[in-house]
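Consider a typical record:
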Amino acid sequence: MGSVRKAAQAGEHARGLGCFQTLVAPTPEDLRWAGICLLHLNRLPEAALRLQQALNLGEQAAAVHLASLHFQQGHAALGLTLLDHVNPAKLPSADAALWYRERARLLWAQGETRDTLLALAMQAWTLAAEAPVDVQVSVATLVGHLHGHFDEHVPAVAYLTFAAEHGHQDRQGYTWVARAASLLVLGRLNKAEQALAHVRGVAAERLRDKHHAQLLWARGDLEGVKRACRVLLPTVQGQPRTELRLRLTLLNAAIQDGDDALARVQIGRVRHLVKSPYDRALLDHRAGLWAALNGETAGVVCLRAAEETFASGGHLRDLVRVRLALAEVDQAARGSYLERAAESATALPTAPFLDPEWRLLPQVHAHLLALDPEHFERRALLQLRAPSRLSLRTLGQVALEVDGERVGFRLGSV
């Protein structure tokens, strides 16, 4: 095994790059692993150069990492074109696992359906069984991300816990960030804050700070949200997905504050950051709510477009929120939208965390509070939490979990 590869697989990317720079005649494999080191060091132009050189010399697996680079830069179609020219059946199992993982990520960015994405991710997981642990961690992180994206946060936390426990220190930051994201959606804010505190590494810290801004929003700290976003936005240029999420968080604060100028700036910028139908629906939801609250009929049109996208894509938590927004701005149809929101909420495996939404939807919140406590819509939408779920995890090591959290036992003799 080459010294560059050995260092990269140990998570020592600066050392791996140093080894590469001492080579007089690097092989295609050396070029590939140097590119991987440069990717982890966030030196993207150099990474692209080395990976392309490796690919040109016949190192087919380099295409997987080059596709990952295109994903980071928001060019999913270009990444998919690269993967289309590589037959995963001809790759070693570890590289084939990463091929399926990367294909799932790229198709996810283009709005592919849940079943297709999880089928690709689980094929990657099957292949990863014979791969080094760093590949298993990489695949488990994606599977956790996907489960979280599709509102399946209990399995998401299980896969992400595996990744956090087994990953190299430099990669653990990403898994802790993903774990925090699922905990935020579940409304477990203190646990999310604890997960974010584990994050280390420059690139992962940017993602951590994005989720910290979302944590501040969930807790109702509007000034904290604005301060955090002002600091973070200049650092995420060239990372459209991260910038989009930050600006939507800032837009939430602007809507609650009634800050028209701040809202307009965010909407104008986010329009140029949208890369998928799901991103468009996220924008239509918040921009539509802002417009409708300001008396613009086009706002309801945007909200209905978001509702259609979320419904067709199976994004139930987003669907609950957008139907609540429609209930807020369309009083004549409020009862119908609340009934549909409640039906979507009860279809979820865990109760939706809606506390931040009520600050944007005061009329709907007051309407629900005025209903009989046993009324269907009130029970579905204002319940504190669904009953806890007990799970036996056998992924990596056996553990008993409640709602994705490991339960410890103190056993003694009687």
Remarks:
- The longest helix spans residues 240-257.
- The CA atoms of residues 7 and 16 lie 5 Å apart.
- Confidence is low (pLDDT under 50) at residues 384-388, 407-414.
